[in-house]
Amino acid sequence: MRAGLKLRAWWILIAMMSAALATSCASSHANRITIGSKNFTESLLLGEIMAQQIEAHSQLKVERRFYLAGTYICQQAMLSGRIDVYPEYTGTAVTAILKEKAIGDKGAIYQRVKNEYERRFSLTLGPALGFNDTFAMEIRGEEARRLNVKTLSEAAAYAPQWRAGFGYEFMERPDGYRGLAAAYGLHFAATPRVMDLGLLASALKEHVIDIAAGNATDGLIPALDLFVLEDDRHYFPPYEAVAVMRQEMVRQHPEVAQSLAQLGGRISDDEMRRMNYALDGQHRDVKDVAREFLQKTCQLPAARCQ
Hints:
Blueprint: H1 2-30, E1 32-36, H2 41-57, E2 61-65, H3 71-79, E3 85-89, H4 90-97, H5 106-121, E4 123-125, E5 135-140, H6 141-147, H7 152-155, E6 164-166, H8 168-172, H9 177-184, E7 193-194, H10 200-205, E8 211-215, H11 220-223, E9 226-229, E10 241-246, H12 247-252, H13 254-261, H14 269-280, H15 286-296
Parallel strand pairs: 1-2, 6-7, 6-8
Antiparallel strand pairs: 3-10, 4-10, 5-8, 5-9
Helix pairs in contact: 2-13, 2-15, 4-5
């Protein structure tokens, strides 16, 4: 009988400890959100800017889960609740996630993504951050000057002599390589090399490849004397940067959406290019670059606005 009572007491104690642990975990999660990012410089930087913005304007703890590969991994992490917020681009969302054609101006595309994300995925968008990070088809500046090419249509004549290098996602996306090649009749000397995004600019500069699909806000474009070919047939849609947020998280913590909304329209193309260069060209710490931007735009409480 005593043994039975003792065993029962142990079970009660274990149940009480489990309940306390569960309560503790729930409480911790209720006061914490998780920011994700993709695995390239700009996404990392935007994730850090969002994290510091939320920390500065709320009592929430922010966990950072950066370098989550590409778009599809981040989307799945959002749907599973592993992350609550991450930076995305409207053109990417409409073509890679919604699997639709990006028809209309940037405002129409933004609204379509917002409406469909809310309807299909219980996700929502913050306001556009202010810059358009469209794909940039880059060649060496010296090559552009020698051949006197400025547009993708003009470059198509030289493509059979060039070796191309693209990121994995660009090769697979509906708004990526296959559609671009069809739109401009591009045929390269060999099958494009699939490379890490962070290696494309240096590979181009060092003649490992001759054309790459980079980003328009890449800070290394002027630093390495690269030339962006004009998308004269307007193949690429607008890629406005936005914060994607879980609606459940926004209901629980409206202060997150409110703080991120203050970043709307704050980042110009030139500003984004400058910050990217600070990381890729000057090898500065992402936390410092993000903090300086927020101070300059008066988003941090300690900042002095003029």
